[in-house]
Design goal:
Blueprint: H1 14-27, H2 40-47, H3 51-63, E1 67-70, E2 74-77, H4 80-83, H5 92-98, E3 103-114, H6 117-123, E4 130-140, E5 143-152, H7 162-168, H8 171-179, E6 183-194, H9 197-203, E7 210-220, E8 225-234
Antiparallel strand pairs: 1-2, 3-4, 4-5, 5-8, 6-7, 7-8
Length: 251
């Protein structure tokens, strides 16, 4: 395995840093489908981290379908078909890159607002709490495929600029580096909808064209809501996921 940046040179927790390195090793084909990972002790020694950090990294990866455990045998790389259909709390940019596309964005607006009663309820905060709202058209290979309307819970007084987001290319990457934004899990609701006049203009579709609507509430590593995002996608966009049987074998 290739040794990369030390944890102190990143903004991520040590286990996330290690998980990203192992995942990159897999993505580069240095670890292949169903190949065993080195034992925890070897990983800890090679990357100069604790065994606990290794366990957390492996658990993080297993929860995301990157690896799997076989009791008594070890930990193995999940087949590509599983890794490719697992939903991560990654940025749209990273997810699109993993699919082989070129991600892009057009920023509609960035504003500091007070949380409405509806948004406050979803984020478990008081009505009027300061939020940063970012609306963007998302592109794949320069073709508009979605509109993201994100409401972010950031430290009081936080501001984001158009140039910051454009330079970073990924909102999640920028938030992680600047504010320690650490999404751990999310709850999503999916439904069908129809394009309104704004959607039609931004997505280059007719008014009332069918859209896939996804509402996401993202939670931090302490399981506190940190983002509500309303995402609308054109009907050609493919939303992939992985479904696993419950660990106790029940159905």
């Amino acid at each position: 395995m290739k040794k990369d940046l030390t944890p102190s040179e990143t903004q991520l927790p040590r286990y996330r840093w290690l998980a990203d390195i192992i995942r990159d090793t897999i993505d580069r084909g240095l670890l292949t489908d169903n190949q065993a990972l080195p034992p925890e002790r070897e990983l800890a020694e090679h990357y100069e981290v604790s065994r606990d950090t290794v366990r957390k990294a492996l658990r993080y990866m297993e929860e995301r379908g990157i690896i799997y455990s076989d009791h008594g045998r070890g930990t193995f790389v999940s087949p590509a078909i599983v890794r490719g259909t697992t939903r991560f709390i990654d940025s749209f940019s990273q997810d699109t890159g993993n699919r082989g596309g070129v991600p892009g964005q057009r920023i509609i607006s960035i504003e500091n607002i007070g949380a409405s009663m509806a948004i406050a309820t979803l984020l478990n905060i008081d009505s009027g709490t300061p939020l940063v709202r970012v609306r963007r058209v998302r592109l794949i290979d320069d073709i508009p495929v979605g509109v993201h309307d994100a409401h972010l819970v950031l430290p009081r007084g936080s501001r984001l600029t158009r140039s910051q987001i454009e330079r970073s290319g990924s909102l999640y990457k920028l938030l992680t580096a600047q504010y320690g934004f650490d999404p751990a899990e999310a709850v999503e609701n999916l439904c069908a909808g129809a394009a309104d006049a704004d959607d039609a203009q931004w997505l280059d579709v007719p008014v009332a064209a069918p859209l896939l609507i996804c509402e996401r509430i993202t939670l931090s590593d302490r399981r506190q809501p940190i983002e509500y995002c309303l995402m609308k996608y054109v009907s050609s966009y493919r939303y992939r996921t992985r479904i696993a049987r419950h660990s106790d074998g029940t159905r």
